[in-house]
Amino acid sequence: MRVSVIGTGYVGSVTAACFAELGHEVICVDVDEKKVSMINAGKAPIWEEGLEELLKKHAEKRIIATSDYDYAVQKSDISFICVGTPSDEKGNIDLSIVESAAVSLGEAMSKKDHYHVVVVKSTVVPQTTEKFVLPLLESYSGKKASKDFGVAMNPEFLREGKAVYDFMHPDKIVVGAIDERTFFMVSELYRRLNCNVTHTKPTTAEMIKYTNNALLSTKISFANEIGNICKKMGVDTYEVMEEVGKDYRISPHFLNCGAGFGGSCFPKDVRAIIGKAEELGYKPKLLRSVIEVNEEQPMYIIRLLSKKMDRLKGKRITVLGLAFKNDTDDIRESRSIPVISELLRQEADVVAYDPMAMEHMKKVFPDITYCNSVSKALKDADACLIMTEWDQFRSLDKEFAEMKRPLIIDGRHLINPKELSVKIEYEGLCW
Ligand code: NAD
Prior knowledge:
Number of strands: 14
Mean pLDDT: 97
CATH superfamily of the largest domain: NAD(P)-binding Rossmann-like Domain
Largest sheet: 8 strands, mixed
Bound molecules: nicotinamide-adenine-dinucleotide
Strand content: 5-15%
């Protein structure tokens, strides 16, 4: 089939590359000319395992990139909206980028004679596809939904870092389509994947995505709250959760406590569904607490550090890990950000290392010291805070001997001090 993908960030570039791998012809559209040129050159605009290989394989054959909506709509049968849906200043969803994409698609559709399908893949609050995107498409195309064009909502569940794998091995594919014809066209795209495609209403599909992310976030904040209680009694939360997770009704996943969740999805999606609930006159107490626990969690690291040091002013504090999780260069809502802000507020001398995310973090904190290896970052440090679960941090040992004071505050349960050859002062965040 012929597909156009609007927005080539994390979701769009992976969607485009994977649809090409499934045999479809793909046109990528982005307003960022740099990304357009990168994709045409077979280069990934973001780091994601396996993405560059697929783009290299299909660029200028099954994938081309452009900033021209008219071309993309004329030369494809289905357009996927994959643009960002950030939070506004109140934490509610900001639909302005979706609006701009829908307007451009509508205008391009007004010049097309044939049936076209528009699929919202961006995460949008329930009712957005039918009550916001569909009317925009009708008004800017001058056409009628269901008759002249189809509309669907197809949420994306991929994990950053494993996005290509997740796209190709989904555990669910949900298509909220306004009619059978639309559903058939969208589900055909996924035919070669070994997964049933669920047909539901657009609003239900939107709610499935939010429920998924809200429940995962809730598990993390729950594990963190239990971890904070355990810490006060010297109980190892990881031992507790290992047993709790054996209950099939609970499952062992997402019970790891630590510095909290970040990324471009969980925090903003939980806030967005809170905003939607309030707009509907409901106060979501549990979901508000999920965010509250998550915001306090990184500050426990600073509290543990402050207990060990009289004052942080002038102390050389090494932050290991800047990405919001391992295997990605994404720093959006990374828990390192509030930690570094607080260290700077207390006038500490902050040194940082991350295998992938330093370039992005330089834009947020241009004035801290970035080192190109863990050893350099740890040299002469007064303390080290571990913020991201990078595998390479698990095997750290002799590097700690370079520190002025080998004080390690572990926010991700990566270090076992008993297994090290060097002696360190160790504090686990909640264990
Ligand atoms: P992103 O910010 O990485 O990418 C968005 C892209 O859209 C950018 O390349 C930007 O230049 C482009 N863009 C902006 N305005 C445009 C326009 N008018 N026309 C064409 N392109 C335009 O965002 P992302 O992380 O890929 O997320 C996209 C959506 O998918 C969001 O709604 C997000 O919540 C959702 N989502 C993200 C993930 C994830 O792990 N990142 C997972 C599931 C769902």
